Amino acid sequence: MKRFSIRLLTLIISGVIISAVSLSACAGAPTSAPAPAVTNNPPAVATNVASLQPTTEPVAAMVNGKPILMSVLNREVARRLDGIRALGDPMPSDQKAYQDTVLDALIDQMLIEEAAAVQSVKVTDADVDAEIQTNISLAGGKDKWLAQLQSNRMTEDETRAGLHSALLTSKMRNIVTAGVAMTAEQVHARHILVSSEATANEVLTKFKGGADFAALAAQYSQDTSTRDTGGDLGWFAKGELLESTVEDAAFSLQANEISAPVKSKLGYHIIQTLERVKDRPISAETHYKLSAKVFDAWVQSLEKSAKIEKYPNGKS
């Protein structure tokens, strides 16, 4: 139940993982924070907004009057599919939907870079050189690093552009999330998840009749991750739970209060808030995830205010 649904902009460019240590030092992130998880859908190759000029090549999208070329999109889709294939993961069943997802990532990267330019946030050649040297060391030498680039369909120039974008994104992320504190109001709650409202009411009646909550969770709950621990969700801040209705209910209760049946996409929940604290320290992991959610919301705000035109079949 306690999972996170966040579009993390992980700092992995063209299959080469940027050193978590060096990025933390550059961006000012806490060194105890977890590195972004490696996925088979890394962020898009840098669109190199500053160098885009009017073109007769087919374009996949126009973002605030600037083009994303179909050739860039097609190359990025092919690169990502190669990565999925190399990992042995299932290939996307809907190629068109996958292409749309990659295009959205390219659009987001362009918007982040535009916002950075407005705020005069810059990454220097020296910053990029330092990251390249780190990656060469991680690869075991320049020849092995170049082989990695080749296997990922990337040139050195494209890799530099990608690293530049990653560092710029990291700087913007730290600016946008600077207000996320290391403490937050938190609740400690537990729940019982069942499939129907009738069953939820049955559980609630039994609890009010004196039945033990943990025993009811073991008997009824369909949440396999918590039922053996009495339905315990642990401590969490606002924005941490996957199911916002469960989170909202937990925060609406005082200590030791129990909710009426709460509906979510998973079913019906009986929720009991055990404790609540207004200013409780959060873990580095929680801080990172809350920051990522704030950053994601900021990117979505850029999307809403931008003029974005997509051309599914390309436009000359």
Explained architecture:
This protein has ten helices and nine strands. It is elongated, with a radius of gyration of 23 Å. The N terminus is likely disordered. The chain is an alpha+beta fold.
* CATH topology title of the largest domain: Triger factor/SurA peptide-binding fold
Largest sheet: 4 strands, antiparallel
Topology as a string of helices (H) and strands (E): EEHEEHHHHHEHHEHEEHE
**What is the β-strand count?**
9
CATH architecture of the largest domain: Orthogonal Bundle
**End-to-end separation:** 47 Å
The count of domains is: 2
User: What Rg is obtained from the alpha carbons, in whole angstroms?
Assistant: 23 Å
Please give the CATH class of the largest domain.
Answer: Mainly Alpha
Shape: elongated
CATH homologous superfamily caption of the largest domain:
Porin chaperone SurA, peptide-binding domain
Low-confidence regions: 1-45, 47-52
Helix content: 40-55%
Strand coverage percent: 15-25%
Strand arrangement, major sheet? 6-5-8-7
Structural class by sheet pairing and helices: alpha+beta
Number of helices: 10
Please give a quick description of this structure.
By secondary structure, the protein is an alpha+beta fold. 47% of the residues lie in helices and 18% in strands.
Write the layout of secondary structure elements.
Layout: E1 12-13, E2 16-17, H1 20-27, E3 59-63, E4 66-69, H2 70-87, H3 95-118, H4 125-139, H5 142-151, H6 156-176, E5 183-194, H7 197-208, H8 213-220, E6 232-237, H9 244-252, E7 262-264, E8 267-281, H10 284-305, E9 308-315
Antiparallel strand pairs: 1-2, 3-4, 3-9, 5-6, 5-8, 7-8
